[in-house]
Amino acid sequence: MDRGTPGHFVGAYLVNLIIAELLFAVGLGTWVIAAWPEVPWDRLERVAVVAMITAPLLLYPFTRTVWLAADLIFDPARPGDR
Question: What are the extents of the domains in the chain?
Fold first, then answer.
């Protein structure tokens, strides 16, 4: 669903980036703390690259829905709007 305003889903992209980065940071921090001091840095680097490419792609439908819900809360639909 689109609200019909130009640039509407730039917010969805921003929410997507924020959520993906936060999940990545929490996962990376948890892995490093759990594996310390024997952290497998080479494997961690490969997993991190794959995670940062796939996370935004997998999360986009959900973050787009979250952004639309937030937009509807702050700017409710008016009668006659499509």
Answer: 23-73
1-53 tens-digit pLDDT: 566 677 777 888 998 999 999 999 999 999 999 999 999 999 999 999 999 99
In angstroms, the first-to-last Cα distance of the chain is 9
What kind and span of H or E run contains 19?
helix 10-35
Q: Are 71 and 3 in contact (CB under 8 A)?
A: yes
Q: Say what the pTM is.
A: 0.74
Backbone region of residue 80 per phi and psi (left: phi > 0; alpha: psi in -120 to 50; beta: other values): left
In angstroms, the Cα distances linking 10 to 39, 71, 74 are 37, 12, 16
The reported pLDDT for the residue numbered 26 is 95
Q: If 0-12 CB within 10 Å is exposed, 13-18 middle and 19+ buried, where does residue 74 land?
A: exposed
Q: Residue 75: which residues within 8 A CB-CB, separation 6 or more?
A: 3
